[in-house]
Amino acid sequence: MNTSFFGELLQAISERGRSLLDRARARERRDTLTETTENLADLCEELLSNRGEASGVALAREILARYDDLTIGPRIAFFEALATRFGADHTRINAAIEAWRNKPSDVAAAELHAATEPRRLELLRRLNLAPQATRTLVEMRGQLLDTLTRRDDLAAVDADFAYLFSTWFNRGFLVLRRIDWSTPAVILEKIIRYEAVHQIRDWVDLRARIDSPDRRCYAFFHPALVDEPLIFVEVALTREIPGAIAPILELKREPLDPERATTAVFYSISNCQRGLAGVTFGSFLIKQVVAEICREMPRLSTFVTLSPAPNFAGWLARQRTQPSPALTEADRAALATLDQQDWWSDEAALDEMREPMLRAAATYFMTARNSSGSPLDAVARFHLGNGARLERLNWPADLSERGRRQSCGLMVNYLYDLGDIEKNHEAYAESRAIIATSAIRKLARPSRALTTVEAAS
Fold first, then answer.
1. Partner of 256 for a Cys bridge, out of 15, 201, 214, 319, CB 3.0 to 4.6 A?
2. CA atoms of 444 and 431, how far apart (whole Å)
3. Catalytic-labelled residue, pool 383, 431, 438, 447
4. What is the arithmetic mean of pLDDT over 388-394?
5. What is the pLDDT of residues 421-436, one digit of tens each?
6. Which domains does the chain have, with CATH numbers?
7. How far apart, in Å, are the Cα atoms of 15 and each of 22, 40, 259, 372?
8. Catalytic residue among 14, 270, 307, 407
9. 19 catalytically annotated
10. Is 383 a catalytic residue?
């Protein structure tokens, strides 16, 4: 009710400001789609100048509307303008530095801080005054991220977006909601569309995941994006730690009475907004969902994930095609079966590959690092960084097309032991220590990978 009221009020202010702008600039406006990026940048300069609130809201709305009409080329040119025309004011910075050197004070320090802030930060804040602007700015950043793959000179613009969004989407503003069959259809449709781990095939599949007594789904929302989930997690209630995804997704399974459940399994976590990449939600989501489920079912004692290993297939392919201590010659020969068509349908081949695959997977998780020294696996970085423990490797666990392509059928259980989360998090934060069970450590090659882990655990 309050959100609707303030939204309507802001809309009214915007409409009033638009009429003021129309009268003030009647001879200058051109209602065509040929507005150049330079004209749009000029409007941004105008927005940054001093003006009344109503006209400022209207101008912000107009800028965002014109941006929305841009094609890819002019859109990139607009990002370039944000980088070049709306950076920090070097003259003001030099003056502030000189003032600080001549007479250090809190006032001088505040001016120096303000001077170093790029002008585009204030521009984005003012653009956010327009109705529905937050949604548009999130989409804008998503388009910027797509551009960054070939234009790293725009990284500073992206850093400013990320800085603002980390504040605007602070955990204190997020609302946790349970998603069930009574959730509005507009949100349920987005849950189907945004599912990023295990595709939801249809409405029947969705209902099985959110409306069964032994299934739960929770999502974070933000007041500025009322019907847009930011991130959601799907949970299965079970009596044991699962080793494969098919039984969890099975439509015709017999539901478990929640009173008999001992384990909560986080089997899918999906970020929904491309433009919010890098803004941390997942760790808060898991911890709050654990608290929510514990209040409802205090008998639950085990909290685990059933996670993919999205970088494993690429890593394994490289180890198989070049000399590597990660694989013995015998294991390399056994894993050559992966080159055969339909290898996943051959039960005998699966049995032959099981042990070599688990040894390779253990080595991957314990030794494979990226250029910054963090685990190569993106999902491992997330869960280990949140304080989970690498509990168990499962193979074959996901023989879907996607599971074979990304993970060669491998899935992983990360255990969230509530008593060890903080200790594990600190060990990972300080030295990127891989906290894992002894069974996984013993499987890994080469043995030198075990030293730092055993010392840290």
1. 214
2. 19
3. 383
4. 96
5. 889 989 998 889 899 9
6. 2-168 (1.20.140.90), 172-305 (3.40.630.180), 308-456 (3.40.630.150)
7. 11, 20, 55, 50
8. 307
9. no
10. yes
